[in-house]
């Protein structure tokens, strides 16, 4: 069956998901999360997109991002999937495909506040168990090292936090 072409629009945000090959639980190690967050930072520096939300689950990842130019989304995702697959395969001492199929994306106008809030709610209320929460936890409580939301200093970014043995 042929693939349908993606429809990229200027001024759109995209909810993107990408899943580990064979739905395997490959993103459970803290080192994998650190590599993934490092790759996100490098991709942001390289492509200049806006990252509004990120949720790293044990076998898939959710993003809400807005590319600077709509035609850059495939380049962003190609680079992220290539870079992380290369790192993860090396780290986990494996070969072959790391990510399953193509990434899935749905776009909406960046002026559609209701859709943006619903998408943010969906992404941020996910837990590691896959069950939704009644209210979002802080990024530190959820074990994230990155927050796309402004800190007290007015910028989103990586959060410095103490390492402990409870983090997966």
Commentary on this structure:
The structure is a single chain. With 168 residues, the chain is α+β, with helices and mostly antiparallel strands. It is built from 4 helices and 6 strands, in the order βαββαβααββ. The strands form 2 sheets. The chain has a 4-stranded antiparallel sheet with strand order 2-3-1-4, with helices on both faces. The chain has a two-stranded antiparallel ribbon with strand order 5-6. α1 runs antiparallel to α2 (73-91). The longest helix is centred in the middle third of the chain and has 19 residues, at 73-91.
Instruction: Provide the CATH top-level class.
Output: Alpha Beta
Supply the CATH architecture.
Answer: 2-Layer Sandwich
N-end to C-end Cα span: 39 Å
Overall mean pLDDT stands at 75
């Amino acid at each position: 069956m042929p693939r349908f072409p993606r429809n990229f629009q200027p001024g759109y945000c995209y909810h993107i998901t990408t899943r580990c090959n064979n739905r395997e639980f490959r993103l459970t190690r803290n080192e994998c999360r650190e590599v993934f967050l490092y790759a996100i930072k490098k991709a942001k520096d390289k492509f200049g997109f806006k990252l509004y939300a990120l949720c790293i689950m044990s076998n898939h990842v959710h993003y809400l991002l807005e590319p600077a130019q709509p035609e850059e989304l495939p380049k962003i995702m190609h680079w992220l999937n290539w870079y992380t697959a290369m790192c993860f395969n090396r780290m986990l001492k494996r070969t072959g495909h790391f990510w399953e199929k193509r990434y899935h994306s749905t776009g909406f106008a960046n002026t559609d506040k209701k859709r943006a809030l619903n998408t943010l709610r969906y992404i941020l209320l996910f837990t590691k168990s896959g069950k939704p929460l009644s209210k979002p936890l802080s990024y530190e409580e959820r074990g994230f090292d990155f927050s796309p939301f402004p800190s007290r200093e007015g910028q989103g970014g990586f959060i410095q936090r103490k390492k402990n043995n409870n983090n997966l």
